[in-house]
Amino acid sequence: MFTGIIEALGTVVNLESTQENLHITMRASFTEELKIDQSVSHNGVCLTVVSITDDTYTVTAIKETLEKTNIGALTVGAVVNLERGMKLGDRLDGHIVQGHVDQTATCVAVSETAGSWSYTFTYDPALHNITIEKGSVTVNGVSLTVVNSKKNEFSVAIIPYTHAHTNFHLFEVGTVVNLEFDVIGKYVKRITEL
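Above: the chain's sequence. Below: its structure in token form.
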């Protein structure tokens, strides 16, 4: 379980494919605090730490993860949003984030206005995911509030702190991101479909 509040930016230092799996070695400021079998969110994808060496750690992504997220497109040097699992009793500063990406989206617009940034994303409506105005959505692991909600498109507004401390500052038109839709919204939608 995560909150969508990014803890650190990590850098991919090595990628190694084994059969249908991808082993991703990361450098992060909190590596020395990690332990084997711990869950860490990488651009919103919950992955398990499988090894630790000095200032790097390795996680493994399976075929389904590679097909349904942007993790398979990572390259050495890529900057990744990181968050360790939430501790029981901590404040929930973002919203409930499972680390289970629903689908990817593409950035179709970026604009800066008086010190903040607006990003617009489109996604495939065939998967029947939804956003609602002022609802929550997770973009590359970042908990955000939806504005301009449409059937297959929404926007988010980013404050300067979030822009500087997440990989949002690297987004441009065409950037593919991971989306996790609000879990409460998903359950409500499922119940109303019964």
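The chain has a mean pLDDT of 93.
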